[in-house]
C-alpha cells in the first residue's frame, strides 16, 4: 500500500518517452522502498521498462572513506537484488545535478525518493527545474511524511508525539513487493554517459579507510542486525539501552541514514514482539527520529548555532564569559587530546568504527560545549566531528542530536557555570549508569 500522502508530483506535462527513470537518492535499498514500488507500478501500467540510477557524487560534503565504503557496499547489494528482479540499474559517477538532466530526454517520467537536508533539497529542486518530463517524489524513509506529521517546527517530543501518533494507523501498513512486467537489465537508454567509472572512483575514495569495518553496509547486513536485535536484545532494551556495555542497541542508525533499511519495515517487525522494550524502541524510531526530520525540514538554520531556540542562546550568552577550566581546539578534540580519558576513548571509537553509543554521544557533545571558548565554536566543532566520524553523520538525527546537547527539544534545568540552564552531564553520571572504566579499557585495547 502506497498512501497518496507519500506522493508529490511536479511538471505534470505528458511525455512520450520510452522508459521510466527512478533516480535513487536517499533510499539505497530494494526492500520496502515505496519510491521503487511506485516506479514499478507506473512501468507496468505504461508497459515501459524501468531504469534505476544512482549518482555517486565525487565530493559529497564531509564524506570520508568510511562513508564511501559503507555506501558502496549498499550499492552492491542493490545491484545484486535488481539483477534478480530483472530491473536495470546503473551507478553513474558525478553530481545528480549534472547527470540526471543528461539522461531524461527519452524518459516519460522520473521518480525519486525524498531527502530533507539542504543539499538533497537543492539537488532535487535543480533537477525538477531542468528536466522536461513529469517528476514524482515519493516519501519512503519516514513512517509518516514530515508535512503530514506536523505543519510546523515542533517545540519538543511532548508537542510532536500526539500529532504523529494520530497518523500512525494510516501509515503503519505493509508494502507489497511488485514484479516488473518489462525486464530492463539489458536495456541501455543512455548515450554519451560513461558507465563503469564509478568503480575506479570509489576504490580511490575508500582505499584510505582505516576503520575496523565494525558495521558492513547494505540492506542484507541491516536485516541481519534487525533480526539479531529481535531475537532477544529487544526484551532487555527498556532497562539497558542506555548502558553502552550491555550491547542492547539495534545498531541500525547508519543503515537508516543511508536508506539501507526502511523505518516502516523495522517498526512492523518490532511490533511483532510486544513488550516494554518494544514501546521504548518505537519511541526512539518514530517519535524521536521523525522529530529530528521535523527540525531539519522546518528550520532553515538546522546546522547553525543561530537555529537553536532563543532560550538556549540567551542562557549561553549570559554565561559566555564564564571561566573554562579546560579549553580545546578542533584539532585537540579530533586527535583525542583532552584531559578526559573517557571522552578521548569516545572520540577514538568514532574514528575507528564510525559508531558511538547514543548515551555516550550526549556526554561527548556536552563536554565539547564545556571545554570550548564560545558556544558558537563548540557547536561548529560538535557538528564537524559528528558529520565526519559518525557513519550516520550528516543526518537529521545527527543535526538534531548535536542541537539537543545545546538545549534543543529540552527544557531549562538548574543553572550552573558555562551551561546556564542547559542540561548538564558529568563523569559521575556515566559511572552511575554503567561500568565506565571497564568500557574504556576494552575500547582502548581494541582500538589503540
UniProtKB/TrEMBL annotation:
Keywords: Chromophore, DNA damage, DNA repair, DNA-binding, FAD, Flavoprotein, Lyase
Catalytic activity: cyclobutadipyrimidine (in DNA) = 2 pyrimidine residues (in DNA)
Pfam families documented for this protein: DNA_photolyase
Cofactors required: FAD; coenzyme F420-(gamma-Glu)n
Keyword check for Repressor: no
Lyase in keyword set: yes
SUPFAM superfamilies assigned: Cryptochrome/photolyase FAD-binding domain, Cryptochrome/photolyase, N-terminal domain
The protein's Enzyme Commission number: 4.1.99.3
Gene Ontology process terms (BP): photoreactive repair
Residue span(s) of domain Photolyase/cryptochrome alpha/beta: 18-146
GO MF: deoxyribodipyrimidine photo-lyase activity; DNA binding
Enzyme's top EC category: lyase
Top-level lineage group: Archaea
Protein name per its UniProtKB record: Deoxyribodipyrimidine photo-lyase
Species annotation: Methanospirillum stamsii
Amino acid at each position: 500500500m502506497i498512501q497518496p500522502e507519500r506522493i508529490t508530483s511536479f511538471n505534470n506535462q505528458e511525455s512520450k518517452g520510452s522508459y521510466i527513470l527512478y533516480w535513487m537518492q536517499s533510499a539505497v535499498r530494494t526492500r520496502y522502498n515505496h519510491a521503487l514500488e511506485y516506479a514499478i507500478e507506473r512501468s507496468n501500467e505504461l508497459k515501459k521498462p524501468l531504469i534505476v540510477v544512482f549518482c555517486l557524487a565525487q565530493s559529497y560534503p564531509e564524506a570520508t572513506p568510511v562513508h564511501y565504503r559503507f555506501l558502496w557496499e549498499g550499492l552492491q547489494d542493490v545491484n545484486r537484488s535488481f539483477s534478480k528482479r530483472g530491473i536495470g540499474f546503473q551507478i553513474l559517477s558525478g553530481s545528480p545535478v549534472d547527470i540526471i538532466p543528461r539522461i531524461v530526454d527519452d524518459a516519460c517520467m522520473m521518480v525519486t525518493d525524498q531527502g530533507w537536508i539542504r543539499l538533497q533539497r537543492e539537488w532535487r529542486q535543480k533537477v525538477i527545474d531542468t528536466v522536461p518530463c513529469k517528476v514524482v517524489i515519493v516519501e519512503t524513509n519516514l513512517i509518516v511524511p514530515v508535512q503530514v506529521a506536523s505543519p510546523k517546527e515542533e517545540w519538543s517530543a511532548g508537542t510532536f508525539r500526539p500529532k504523529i501518533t494520530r497518523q500512525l494507523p494510516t501509515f503503519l501498513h505493509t508494502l507489497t513487493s511488485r514484479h516488473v512486467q518489462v525486464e530492463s537489465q539489458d536495456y541501455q537508454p543512455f548515450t554519451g554517459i560513461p558507465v563503469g567509472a564509478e568503480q575506479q572512483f570509489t576504490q580511490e575514495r575508500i582505499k584510505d579507510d582505516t576503520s575496523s569495518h565494525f558495521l558492513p553496509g547494505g540492506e542484507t547486513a541491516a536485516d541481519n542486525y534487525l533480526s539479531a536485535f529481535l531475537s532477544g536484545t529487544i526484551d532487555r532494551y527498556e532497562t539497558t539501552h542506555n548502558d553502552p556495555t550491555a550491547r542492547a542497541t539495534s545498531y541500525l542508525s547508519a543503515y537508516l541514514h543511508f536508506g539501507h533499511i526502511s523505518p516502516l519495515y523495522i517498526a512492523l517487525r518490532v511490533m511483532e514482539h510486544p513488550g516494554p522494550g518494544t514501546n521504548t524502541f518505537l519511541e526512539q524510531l518514530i517519535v524521536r527520529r521523525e522529530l529530528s526530520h521535523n527540525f531539519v525540514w522546518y528550520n532553515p538554520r538546522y546546522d547553525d548555532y543561530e537555529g537553536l531556540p532563543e532560550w538556549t542562546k540567551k542562557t549561553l550568552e549570559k554565561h559566555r564569559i564564564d571561566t573554562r577550566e579546560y579549553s580545546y581546539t578542533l584539532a585537540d578534540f579530533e586527535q583525542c587530546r583532552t584531559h578526559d580519558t573517557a571522552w578521548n576513548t569516545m572520540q577514538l571509537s568514532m574514528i575507528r568504527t564510525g559508531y558511538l553509543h547514543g548515551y555516550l554521544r550526549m556526554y561527548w557533545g556536552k563536554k565539547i560545549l564545556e571545554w570550548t571558548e564560545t558556544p558558537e565554536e563548540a557547536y561548529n566543532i560538535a557538528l564537524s566531528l559528528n558529520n565526519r566520524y559518525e557513519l550516520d553523520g550528516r543526518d537529521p538525527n545527527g543535526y538534531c542530536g548535536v542541537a539537543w546537547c545545546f538545549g534543543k527539544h529540552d527544557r531549562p534545568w538548574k543553572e550552573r557555570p558555562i551551561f546556564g540552564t542547559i542540561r548538564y552531564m558529568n563523569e559521575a553520571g556515566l559511572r552511575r549508569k554503567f561500568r565506565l572504566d571497564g568500557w574504556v579499557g576494552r575500547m582502548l585495547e581494541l582500538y589503540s
